[in-house]
Structure formats: structure tokens, C-alpha cells
Amino acid sequence: MSGRAWTWARLLGGAAILALLVRRLGTGPFLDGVRLISVWSLLAATSITALTTVCSAWRWQTVARGLGVGLTLGTAIAACYRSQFLNSALPGGVVGDVHRGVRHGLDEGQVGRGLRAVGWERAAGHVVFAVLAGIALLLLDSPVRPAMPWVGATAVAGALGGALVLRALPRLGPSRRARVVRAARADIRDGLLARRAWPVVTVTSVVVAVGHGSVFLVAASPARLWPLAMLVLLAMVVPLNVGGWGPREGVAAWAFAAAGLGAAQGVATATAYGVMGLVATLPGALVLARDRIRRNGARRRSGAGTDLSGAADVPVG
Q1: CA-CA distance, 245 to 270, in Å (whole number)?
Q2: Is residue 90 a contact partner of residue 135, using CB atoms and an 8 Å limit?
Q3: Which end of the chain has a smaller Cβ tally under 10 Å, C or N?
């Protein structure tokens, strides 16, 4: 499947899930979700998101340095806010991450490594979150708890199989496959598993995961909903969404209904989470505006310099 076709499939998949929910439940749960939001909940979500953004930026900085592409923490924080806002505001949910990787790579003159740094940083965060979610769903009561031992065993077997396959793949020689394997092994060794890297990657990923779950609980209120929060947030990893919307609301409807809380409450809670998340990433819009102003200023200065240099060449008298 081509890149364009896959993009459309993702968007249409998310839109189809939302359309199905509206058809089955109506627009009421979505409006109820907006009504759940208060000033205090927005302040809480914004504060928690600030912490998770700093941790995400620190994780990215650590991985990027391991891959040999320097990055200051301040620049990383601004770029992560911009990335989160773009992911929330634009279809697909990954545009911001791609922009972040390309922009950093261009600044460092190594676009490939810039994109790989973002890719490995995001992958590490997803893995840690999946492990924490699996533990929570295994230990706490939830609709999927009976199946979790099998899910956990399958995940462990898959991880071991993947490690064995990566180890067995040829890494010597000039072939493209060998070069990819060598690059992947080097990235994992230097960016994720190095002595100075893995503690930062692990701790920041845990804080980010707990932070996202906490924002969901701000929307849902009862702390007993933590395993449901993990389920819903895991659904956000599914690449079929429109700016993050779609699978999140679908899984929330199913999980809340299975827990006896009602599908409508699940959709309302997921809606409140989505809106609070968008508001909490609005500093990213300010970063975008600042970048635009700086680019326009640079163009004007460049134009003025061209005019002056041209005037200097005009003979006088």
C-alpha cells in the first residue's frame, strides 16, 4: 500500500469509528464530554502536560545525543509542544513527530538521524507504556483481565522472537538489509541501552505514561477507572485516527459499557480527555507562531540586504 493510500486509510478508519459512534449513541455523549470540562480540570491537564512534555523532551534529547545529533533541552521542549499541538490538530496523529524529526535533522545536517532519533524515542515510550498498561490490566479489575495472562505471554514471546530475528539478520556486507540492521543495532545500543541513556529513557517514559493516565482520570474522576484509562490510551496507538480521535472513543465506549458504566459515559470521558489534551498543547501553537514570525523577519532582512547590495553596485555621477 502506498504512503498516500495508507494515509487515507488511517483517516477514513478513524472517521468511520466516529460515524458509527454518532449513529449508535448520537451526539449527546460528545457534548456531555465538553460539558464535563471545567477551568480547574483544564489547569490540571495543562500542568500535567507541562511535566510530561519536559520528560518527553528530555527523553528525546538523550536518544538524539546517543545517535550523534545534538539537541538542547529548551529547543526540545519547544519542539515537543509544537509536535503535540500538530498531532492533536491535524489528521493522522503523527504529523508533528515527522515535522519534529525533519526539522531537527535539517538543523543538524543529518535528516536521517533526526528522524531515527524521534522514531526510537517514540518507540521507547510506547514500549514502556505498554508494559505499565499490561501490569495494570493484569493486576486490576477490567473487562480484559481474564485474557491478560495470554496477552502477556504472547507479548513476551513476540519480544523474544523479535530479538532473535534481529540478532540472526545479516549485519555484514554492503547490502541494504545489512546496512539497515547495523544502523538499527547501533541506534538501540547507543541511543536506548547505553549506560547514561536507559535510566533517563525509562524514568521519563514512566512519568509520561502516568501523566497521560492522570489526565484521563481528571476527565473521568474515579480512581478505580485507572485500568480503563490504560485500555483507552493504548487504543490511541492504533494508527487509524483523525487528530487522535476515533479508536480512543471506540474503545472507551466498549470498555465503559463492559465495566457497567455505559458506552455514553465512555465516549463523554474520552471526548473530555481529547479536548483537554488539545487545550494543554496550545503552547505549541505559540511556538508555531513564533517560528513563523522569525522566518518572515529573516526573509525581510534577506530582501533588504539584497536591495542594499544591489544599490551599492549602481555607479554614481
Answers
A1: 9
A2: no
A3: C
Question: Phi, psi at residue 245, to the nearest 5°?
Answer: -95, 145
Alpha-carbon gap, residue 187 to 71, rounded angstroms: 16
- CA 13 to chain centroid, in Å, comes to 19
Choose among 266, 228, 247, 23: nearest CA to 133.
228
264 Cβ contact partners less than 8 Å away, ≥ 6 residues apart:
25, 28, 29, 32, 253
Handedness of CA 232, 236, 242, 247 (dihedral sign): negative
CA-only gyration radius of the chain, Å: 23
- DSSP 3-state of 176: helix
The distance of Cα 154 from the centroid of its chain, to the nearest Å, equals 25
Per-residue model confidence as pLDDT tens digits over 257-297? 988 889 999 999 999 999 999 999 999 999 999 988 888 88
Q: 179-233 pLDDT, tens per residue?
A: 788 888 889 999 999 999 999 999 999 999 999 999 998 888 676 788 888 988 9
Rounded to 10 deg, the angle between the 198-220 and 111-139 helix axes is 60
Contact 114, 106 (CB under 8 A): yes
C-alpha grid cell for residue 219? 476527565
Tell how far CA 61 is from the center of its chain.
15
Task: Report d(CA 270, CA 49) in Å as an integer.
Answer: 16
Q: In this structure, which long-range contacts are made by residues 172-178, counting pairs with CB atoms below 8 Å and at least 24 apart in sequence?
A: none
One-letter identity of residue 181: V
pLDDT in tens, 52-87: 999 999 999 999 999 999 899 999 999 999 999 998
